[in-house]
Amino acid sequence: MTQVLAPEHHAPTPAVGRSNDRLWHLAFGALLAITLIAFTLWSFDFVGRDAPRMVVITTVIFGAFMAFNIGGNDVANAFGTSVGAGTLTMKQALLVAAVFEVSGALLAGGDVTDTVKSGIVDLGAVALDPMDFVFIMMAALLGASVWLLLATRMGWPVSTTHAIIGGIIGASLTIGFVTGTGSLAMVQWSEVGQIAVSWVLSPALGGLVAFVIYGLIKKYVLGSSLSHTLKPHMLAPVTAADDSVDARLDEATDSSDSAAATGSGLIGTHAALQRWVPLIAAVGAVIITAMLLFKGLKNLDMSVSTVGGVIIMTMIGVAVWLAVFVFAKTLRRQTVPRATFVLFSWMQVFTASAFAFSHGSNDIANAVGPFAAVLDVLRTDSIHAEATVPFAAMLTCGIALVVGLWFIGRKVIATVGTKLTEIHPASGFAAELAAAGVVMGASVSGLPVSSTHILIGAIIGVGLVNRSANWKLMKPIALAWIITLPAAAAIGSIGVITLRTMMS
Fold first, then answer.
1. pLDDT of residue 323 exceeding 90
2. Which percentage of the chain shows pLDDT scores above 90?
3. Contact 110, 364 (CB under 8 A)
4. Taking CA 236 as the corner, what is the angle to CA 250 and CA 152, rounded to the nearest 5 degrees?
5. Do the beta carbons of residue 454 and residue 102 sit within 8 Å?
6. 3-state DSSP assignment of residue 402
7. Rounded CA gap, 170 and 156, in Å?
8. Which pTM does this prediction carry?
9. Which helix (H) or strand (E) holds 305?
10. I want to staple 143 with a disulfide (CB 3.0 to 4.6 A). Which of 106, 109, 398, 492 is the partner?
11. Spatial contact of 357 and 296, defined as CB atoms under 8 Å apart
12. What's CA 9's distance to the chain center, in Å?
């Protein structure tokens, strides 16, 4: 094997790297500061002169803080497989997130949002003062974001949806008990029970589907030697790396001298790539298209019938099959490991982008929902079941989300991309495709699942195929899933009392 070049021949010196990152830190810090100042000034006009200024300012900070932590945990979780596999560098993942997460939020995030997430708390059953409702939503944002920050610092990917629900439960019950207008009956405990079911159901479904998909890819396309060649075993840790895909391709090429054309029949050969990879890509395109049509774009006023949806998916599937088939033929002069790396890397970029769009269109509501609800109450002095989502609020949360990914997302990316199991483009693609398929299926069937838990389960499923799943790390992650709701509830409870005391 060709000797690996010393770091100084292909990577910037540590001083240069630190200086470059310092510029990125300053740029994103300045972007967030300017956005918050501009949005706060806009909010003063939006809610009117009579609204308490300190409440408005605090709400803007809490809403942006929640979006910041969604970026550091949820978005980092979504891009962990792509970065861990070497398909995207950290900065490339940041660019993809900026484009597709924010686009999903702005284009398909919806014009209105539920003021109480999932209807888990029945605030309509009590005589609630509008300002108490404001304090509940503010405390929920605070409770969820503080817990997300702690989990992110530990490298634990957790559910932001469960966090915001926990914050709302804790703050609502506290206000109910303090004012004497509510009790434990305010909480829809059956919904909480479904959350508990999702702790097991989500990772189990994700793991099962990923195990099947990657098992078939490994059996019919890769072969054991080629699969080993594609492992990023000589790469720097994700937390410190911003290396290029070309460097990983060079490594795969160097490793191919003793690993090409292994197994039986077509396994591990160019013929296998041309036969199976276009078909896999077509199936993946159909699943991703379905997710975008029926989940990612569900908030848009699009009347696509079932027949129309099937026609669209079929057209895209055929087009992708043909495009990947032609692309695979152009790689015949490359070694099999290099060609495989390139094909699955491109496929993984598309799955990651689609997942980001869908995530932006749906999960950013965890920050925007309570945020918009507070602005709506301050503007109208009354509580509504739904609140209009201003474009400026969605844009602010989208920017805060991307900034959060840059500043605090690396530990979660390291957990998802390298620590749970070794990831390469083929296994990363399988995990992302499995997660997308399960999320889509669960949305249609109404199963209580978490996209975060599904993706983690999918990564473990890939690890089971390679017999490299890190069960020791899964224990604290699973415990964090269980703790998320009560932890956010406890912080929300303390927060609502503090806010009500200071600002009433």
1. yes
2. 45
3. no
4. 130
5. no
6. helix
7. 22
8. 0.84
9. none
10. 492
11. yes
12. 35
